[in-house]
Design goal:
This protein is mainly alpha-helical. It has one domain. It has six helices and two strands; from the N terminus they run H-H-E-E-H-H-H-H. Strands 1-2 form a two-stranded antiparallel ribbon. The radius of gyration is 18 Å and the shape is elongated.
Length: about 140
Amino acid sequence: MIIGWLRGGHPERFCVAVIILVYLALGPLQRWVIGDIYVDSIVEGTLEFLFMGWLVLRSDRWWPFVATAATGLIVLVHVFTVVTDISWGAALSARVGLELLEYAALLAGVAERWMAGERPIIEGLRWRERVRPAS
């Protein structure tokens, strides 16, 4: 995520911001468990899916499709956990693997930007005008 923030464009930075902000917003809700269902994780996955879906509709990159598909499958794993009798280990393994796919798609988006020769957004940002010292 650090590479996505420092070397990415607007879509990459949006993705990183969504992941971090959703995690921080739901941080106090850690361990919100009903039976064997982690409700906080369901809400986190659903929010990420909605924001990534919005990013797919607003950007012209390919990697948000992969990230959105991964988060959609994470939500589907949560649905199957509620509806069927999937073991905790199998559900956790599927969610971790899909989150790694989401992060790999983000990293591939940054690599694509770098290979295309596009400059990162952070290089164009200036906090204040530079003043030349008087000679």
